[in-house]
Design goal:
By secondary structure, the protein is α+β, with helices and mostly antiparallel strands. The protein is built from eight helices and 23 strands. About 5% of the residues have low confidence.
Length: 376
């Protein structure tokens, strides 16, 4: 029974490895827009500090969270409300929470458009459900305000209970406001101001960069694209597209090119996941695998006296130790085999995914693996 279950498990893993191989083998080309980013066209991160009000008694404790109390005091003063600092310390408010607001400002964003914002508590608030974010300026890394956020939060969670019990779903201290920030300033930057474009490959590779240049030059001329390095390709905008740069960029992004990458084996020991690229090859190597199992059982033997006899019950602990060692098998893996042959050969010796991780590490140390081994 155990052998059948193990056989099915190994067969399933072999099929999964082969499917990864087939997927990689059939993916010969990709669009340029999926593998490269256009320089100067990127998102900008925004962040701000604000207050969420209207909470049903689940806000920050003002006696413990001093920055929330200070922010509430400053907000009231800016609204023209005279507050005595000495008397303000006596006020009990539990429907206000200090939060950090972050958003992503897209490229070419125009003043008047809106973006989504994420709101997260930084105090000891129990929940932000039902809260309303007050006007919060959002700044970029240069210190300028690019957007202003305000509005009711959407939580998608709840948290309630008493002193003895509590019920909670998801994370009630993080919320989102759809279209909750109004853009006030356009991010700096000029699109192809010097008549050139700069593409950056998401995965740097000399072969992919050369293939990208060849595809562009074959369509628009030999002097159009030039690879700067393994990750950067510079493109000169042709004369006929000087006044129509968007159309030129769109035509480049739709081009399909052959991509290449280094041979890699990625393993995750925590989950037992193994992913091997199609170009992974092995030199001739012999692999032996065997499992050693140590089983320890603790039992308690009880001895009782006969009925009506003088004596006492005696409990004696006993330990049973079993050592099981599987028979090791020596498997020869021929040089230059494909990933499918590697999977078949290693599964033939009865190796589970976690065993394969140790085997791959040993093969790499032995210098028989032609590829990079990455352990997550």
């Amino acid at each position: 029974m155990k052998k059948n279950m193990r056989s099915r498990y190994i067969t399933t893993f072999t099929v999964a490895i082969l499917l990864v191989f087939l997927i990689c083998a059939t993916s010969w080309s990709a669009r340029i827009k999926d593998i490269a980013e256009l320089g100067g066209v990127r998102n900008n991160q925004l962040i701000g500090y604000g207050l969420v009000t209207g909470l049903a008694g689940t806000g920050d404790d003002l006696k413990k969270v001093l920055f929330t109390r200070q922010a509430l005091y400053n907000m009231l003063v800016r609204q023209g409300i005279t507050v005595n600092p000495e008397e303000f310390d006596k006020i009990k408010v539990n429907n206000v929470a200090a939060v950090m607001v972050n958003a992503s400002l897209p490229p070419f964003a125009k003043p008047g458009s809106t973006i989504d914002v994420q709101v997260s508590s930084i105090g000891d608030a129990k929940s932000l459900a039902g809260g309303n974010l007050l006007m919060t300026p959002l700044k970029a890394a240069d210190g300028h305000v690019y957007a202003v956020a305000q509005g009711p939060l959407t939580i998608g969670a709840f948290s309630f209970g008493g002193k003895a019990a509590k019920a909670q779903k998801n994370h009630p201290t993080v919320g989102r406001i759809t279209s909750g920030a109004l853009i006030e300033r356009q991010p700096p930057g000029e699109f192809a101001g010097d008549g050139t474009l700069s593409y950056t490959l998401r995965s740097s590779d000399f072969t992919t960069a050369a293939n990208m240049c060849d595809a562009i030059n074959n369509k628009y001329g030999d002097e159009t694209a030039f690879p700067i390095d393994s990750a950067t390709v510079k493109v000169t905008i042709p004369e006929q597209f000087i006044n129509n740069k968007v159309q030129f960029v769109a035509s480049i992004e739709k081009m399909r090119i052959d991509t290449d990458t280094n041979a890699k084996v990625v393993v995750n020991e925590r989950t037992g996941t193994i992913v091997m690229g199609q170009d992974v090859r092995l030199s001739t190597v012999a692999v032996s695998h065997g499992n050693l199992s140590l089983i320890v059982r603790e039992n308690t033997e009880v001895s009782q006296p006969n009925p009506l006899a003088a004596g006492q019950t005696i409990a004696s602990p006993s330990t049973q130790l079993d050592v099981i060692e599987d028979d090791g098998q020596l498997m020869i893996v021929e040089e230059g085999v494909s990933i499918g042959a590697v999977a078949d050969a290693l599964n033939a010796i009865g190796a589970t995914p976690r065993d394969l991780i140790a085997i791959f590490q040993a093969i790499k140390v032995a210098g028989a693996m032609h590829g990079e081994l990455i352990v997550l």
